[in-house]
What does this fold into?
Amino acid sequence: MAEPHELTLPELAATGLSPAQAKALFRSFHQGLEFPSPLTAVKNERAPGVIKTDFRLPDGLAIEAVFMDWGKEKKFVCVSSQAGCPVGCRFCATGRMGLKRNLTAGEIIAQVYHFAKTEKITNLVFMGMGEPFLNYDRVTKAVRLLNSELGQNIALRKIVISTVGIVTGLEKFGRELRALKLAWSLAAPEEKLRRSLIPYSALPTIDETIAAIIGYQKRSKQRITIEYVLLKGVNDSAKELEKLFEISRKIDSHINLIEYNPTGKEFTAGDVDAARTYLKKLKANVTIRRSLGKEISAACGQLLPSHVVS
It folds into this structure.
């Protein structure tokens, strides 16, 4: 059963409250942040422009979320959608946990509200722990609460959902939340290598994902981002970059190269500057994501709570 702070305004009103009472209660939850948080902050780590917080959940499980200050009033929260992750990307620390469980909508919004008590949050990226589209209903419920003008009023166009390409989520997303931004974590442009790096048994094929993205874009008219973690000697050859470029041409997209952030000894970082130069020669639309917080294991792919409960 949903907690009161997990209810949308119409859902609150349906409990028997008057419209004025429902609005006042909703505001107290989502502007005043006046509800018992389901999360307990047990550890904060800081680096320039970054705060990483370890949270304990009511059942003792653990998650992390990250606040990033990019300057010029751009203040992001990197949000987790699951405790652990079932996808198991080999270059991502969270994948080592496996999936413990999905987070509730209340646990998702509480990550943002933890930082919103002291900062004006402008952007959200669902790029923390978990695959958002495998917790679709709770993630989208949290998005609606965070977007409400009676709450934090975070614009949908400033919220990014990152997925490995879960087709059912992409299909719903195109129908329900077209204004949000979408990022596709590709890992490799060739199927065998991709499945080696993302050993999720239910992973859709590249072609299936492209078809779903085309359907999404017909409805949304939104350009997507192809996220590509560059791994030295694994997915950074000229052949693979050319295949990546060919995939990017099949959909309205730009390529975002991500420098691998250390999570163990299996991989090392590829040369993102050289890869960008090569892709530019191919006339690709390409940028580089510069990560914050690597020194405190708060950068892309590094989230793994220090107090994980098995």
